[in-house]
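Milestone 3.1: sequence recovery, worked example.
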């Protein structure tokens, strides 16, 4: 989300007993259940339209694919993240935080051209926590140049923490212009949360949810500023100096206006068109895998909604009902100010947002129907969260990402 300075005191949060007690002015507002029956996601005809263009481009040999994501990651290393939290995190030591820092070119709010937002990883992609035998984190970024006209994913292979591997992938949209198939920048405002589920990468941008597939990871053979195949479709593929690009397979909207064939925008906090800012995966549900989405709200506001959407493990996409729509399983309204992200273990919710003192960002733990409890501060503007379930003797972990100066990606014990 866009960075804002937080000055107003938060009156809705109850601090954990392990930290300072709440002041008399702080009220214990609940993470409360609300009716979810009106919340739907509509893919329209986007998957059919995009798939036809992608199929034509691949069949013509205009674009090619690497042997695997691992093969792409193993290529030339243009940037060098390092394992270890090289900046002060503010996270309490009892949570034993670890993680990695970005290359210096991506580290600073004031000088970097990209800002990290969402986080997922191989722990979401497969139940055994690995992809192609590797442990990989993936972050979503929005470009700050040209009014958010670009978005990317960054894959960091941390299988060997002494030698991290790195790969940036530009997000693009297949288009047909004057009868010529090509691809264009993903410029739908502000790339935010990301979920990696099977071979799908789901990216939220506030008003929409966009789907990409690792089965269609494209190798770029031309390194140039432009994106696509040139004006006549005959140039070698280029993706703004990126070695790889992912074309959008389709997208989902929170509502549709069939009278004029146009989608309409989302409305946070109220109404039947919820916004989708942060997203994360929850494999701990009793019935099925779900995706959790939350709404971004202003620095001095609460009431953002957290919504659970069903997932289909056969398609690696949100589960469609018989009417062709995705219907929410459940929803809550959150008392956390400036809510930035959420993760769930099937019972508990972990929310990022303003600390109870009114400044800084914190992780809060919530149980439906009860007031959230603050667990720890996180320096640098905490953004999205992701829950890594326990597997084969390994403990569950909570991952997070920040966007300010002195950036890092952390993994911590679950509060």
């Amino acid at each position: 989300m866009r960075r804002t300075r937080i000055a107003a005191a938060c009156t809705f949060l109850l601090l954990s007993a392990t930290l300072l007690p709440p002041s008399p002015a702080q009220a214990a507002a609940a993470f409360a259940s609300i009716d979810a029956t009106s919340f739907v996601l509509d893919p329209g005809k986007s998957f059919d339209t995009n798939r036809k263009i992608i199929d034509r481009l691949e069949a013509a040999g205009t674009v090619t694919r690497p042997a695997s994501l691992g093969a792409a990651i193993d290529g030339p290393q243009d940037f060098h993240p390092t394992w270890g939290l090289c900046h002060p995190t503010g996270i309490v030591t009892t949570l034993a935080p670890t993680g990695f820092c970005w290359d210096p070119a991506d580290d600073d709010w004031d000088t970097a051209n990209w800002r990290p937002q969402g986080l997922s990883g191989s722990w979401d992609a497969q139940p055994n926590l690995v992809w192609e035998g590797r442990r990989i984190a993936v972050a979503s970024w929005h470009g700050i140049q040209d009014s958010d006209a670009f978005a990317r994913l960054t894959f960091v292979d941390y299988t060997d923490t002494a030698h991290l591997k790195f790969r940036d992938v530009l997000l693009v949209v297949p288009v047909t212009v004057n009868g010529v198939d090509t691809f264009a920048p993903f410029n739908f405002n502000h790339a935010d949360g990301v979920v990696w589920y099977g071979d799908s990468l789901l990216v939220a941008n506030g008003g929409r949810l966009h789907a990409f597939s690792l089965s269609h990871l494209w190798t770029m053979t031309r390194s140039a500023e432009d994106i696509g195949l040139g004006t006549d479709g005959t140039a070698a593929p280029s993706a703004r100096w990126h070695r790889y690009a992912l074309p959008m397979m389709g997208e989902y909207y929170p509502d549709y206006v069939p009278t004029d064939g146009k989608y309409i925008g989302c409305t946070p906090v109220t109404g039947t068109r919820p916004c989708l800012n942060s997203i994360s995966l929850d494999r701990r549900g009793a019935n099925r895998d779900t995706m959790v989405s939350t709404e971004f709200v202003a620095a001095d506001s609460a009431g953002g909604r957290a919504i659970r959407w069903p997932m289909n493990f056969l398609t690696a996409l949100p589960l469609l009902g018989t009417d062709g729509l995705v219907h929410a399983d459940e929803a809550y309204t959150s008392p956390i100010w400036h809510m930035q992200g959420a993760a769930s273990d099937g019972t508990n919710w972990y929310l990022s947002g303003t600390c109870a003192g009114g400044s800084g960002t914190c992780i809060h733990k919530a149980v439906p129907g009860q007031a959230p409890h603050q667990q720890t501060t996180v320096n640098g503007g905490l953004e999205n969260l992701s829950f890594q379930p326990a597997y084969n003797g390994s403990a569950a972990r909570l991952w997070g990402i920040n966007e300010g100066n002195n950036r890092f990606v952390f993994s911590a014990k679950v509060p």
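The chain has one domain: 14-413. The longest helix spans residues 46-59.
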